[in-house]
Amino acid sequence: xxxxxxxxxxxxxxxxxxxxxxxxxxxxxxxxxxxxxxxxxxxxxxxxxxxxxxxxxxxxxxxxxxxxxxxxxxxxxxxxxxxxxxxxxxxxxxxxxxxxxxxxxxxxxxxxxxxxxxxxxxxxxxxxxxxxxxxxxxxxxxxxxxxxxxxxxxxxxx
Length: 158
What we know:
mainly beta, Neuraminidase, four-stranded antiparallel beta sheet, 1 helix, disordered N terminus
């Protein structure tokens, strides 16, 4: 997985999350082996907020991890609604949208107070969501999922 922000990119590979320049020079690293504990079990997706915080969904640990710009873990979020968090997108400084595959739902995570609330679920047509994308201009949420990850649903949110 990889994300580009400004002149830096963040990438995850084989137990290591690295922040690099666009040219590939490593700036900061979070490494399970260096830490001596398994910080990241099976991260799948991440998002970068407008203030530069990095959020990583870890589907095996059933958590969302918050890191600062230097990749230091600042918070870990858990909830029964985070049974298998996958896609994650930053909507604002106090809202992340997280696709949770096992609960067939999209939840709102408030990183300021740690609350997790239900937004969309099976009754809205959500089935095994994998990824989410948000368009602030149109106020539309795009959710991919389904058995073979081939379905894309579009929701208008206010």
